[in-house]
Every structure is written in structure tokens, then in C-alpha cells.
Amino acid sequence: TVEAWIKPTNASQTDPTVVSVWNFPDGRRSWGIFGDTGGSATAFDGTIRGAVSPDGQFATRTEISGTVNLHQWSHVAFTRSGNTLYFFINGVLQGTASYTGSVYSNTSDGIMIGGMGDDAPDIRNGWDGSISNVRVIKGTAVYTSSFRPPTEPLTNITNTKLLCCNNSSTTGSTVTPGTITAHNGPTAS
Q1: In the chain, what is the greatest distance between 2 CA atoms, to the nearest angstrom?
Q2: DSSP 12
Q3: What is the spatial distance between Cα 138 and Cα 118, in angstroms, rounded to a whole number?
Q4: Whether pLDDT at 39 is above 60
Q5: For residue 41, is pLDDT > 60?
Q6: What end-to-end distance do the CA atoms of the chain give, in Å?
Q7: Which of 18, 129, 131, 158 has the lowest tally of Cβ within 10 angstroms?
């Protein structure tokens, strides 16, 4: 399960990244939640997608999408239970997809929030807006049917591997597998 609260504030952004282990070159793509502009630099219409790759390649990805509104907070969640992927926006199931086998294990890149790339200054597909309460859970499909989005801050539940963007510091966290580094000047509010 990968989830977060998001608030996009700019329609002029290209395929903005919410949270992922999905580096730009083929062979290093694993999973993520992204905005989708179809490659256009000025056409972010609020389409958000969850995607996974079995082999690190873009062409073999499986994805599900839905739409959020600019300048409004939305809860997004992408889960896997058995051989089914689920994608939710504000607790409403946007779709499912069949997915067998493993998700590509990208051991070269860490989890990135608000962008993708190797490291500064090579960070691409930046998120222009706010991201809050990012939670990554490995081994538990928290959501498999429509639900009421949480109204309280997310908590550390069984199998939580990352829980961050939930306090007054850009690098603060409740659960993290390592050090969080801020790049490109994010601010906490």
C-alpha cells in the first residue's frame, strides 16, 4: 500500500511525481504514484496514476488512473492484494488491474517524494503543490474496496516501512528506513 494526501497547485507541470521508486531511465522503474500529462509540459489536468513495472521498463508497466482537482486536497492510495492492483482517490475505487509476479526490485534508487531521479541536481518530474502523510506499507493491502479517507494523521500500522511528511519539518518522519534528505528547497507548512 502506498498512500498520501496531495494538493496539486500548478497545471503547468510535466508528469509530476507524488511518491515512487521510479527513476527516469528504463531498467530502474519499480512503483509509484504520479500525475499524468501524456508528456505535455502544460497539460496537467489532474490525472493521477498508480503504476508498477515487473522488469524496470516503462513499456511493461501496469497502471490505473483517476482525477483530482487542482488546489484541493485529495487522498490517493495504490494497493496490491494477491494478483490485483487497486487505485483509490478520496476512498473511491478508480479501477483494478490484474498483476501477477513480482514488482521490479530497484536496489539503485531510494523512495523519492515529489520528484524522481538519481539525486540533486538530477531530480525530474517535480511535484508543484503539497504532499502530506506519505505512508508505504509492504505486505499489507490496507484498502481493497471503497473506504472513507482518514481525517486524522496517518499512523504507524503493521508493516509500515515509511511514514513521513507528517510534521513541521521537511525531513521529519515517524517511520523511515534511513535518512531523509530534502532537495530543491521544499518547505513545511
Answers
A1: 40
A2: S
A3: 23
A4: no
A5: no
A6: 25
A7: 158
Q: What is the mean pLDDT of the chain?
A: 87
Work out the number of other CB atoms within 10 angstroms of the CB of residue 177.
11
Report how far residue 6's alpha carbon sits from residue 150's, in angstroms, rounded to the nearest whole number: 13
Q: How many CB atoms lie within 10 A of CB 106?
A: 19
Q: Please, which residues bridge with residue 98 across strands?
A: 84
Distance (Å, whole) CA 61 – CA 58: 5
Amino acid making up residue 69: N
In contact, 137 and 159? CB cutoff 8 Å: yes
- 8-23, pLDDT tens digit by residue? 988 777 788 899 988 8
Q: How far is residue 189's CA from residue 187's CA, in Å, rounded to a whole number? A: 7
- Mean pLDDT is lowest, of 20-24, 60-64, 90-94, 170-174, for 170-174
Q: Where are the beta strands (DSSP E) in 9-151?
A: 17-22, 29-35, 47-52, 62-67, 74-81, 84-89, 92-98, 112-113, 116-117, 123-124, 129-137
Q: Please give the backbone phi and psi of residue 3, each rounded to the nearest 5 degrees, phi first.
A: -145, 160
Task: Mention every residue, 6+ apart, whose C-beta is less than 8 A from residue 119.
Answer: 183
CB count in 10 Å sphere of residue 1: 21
- The single-letter code of the amino acid at 166 is N
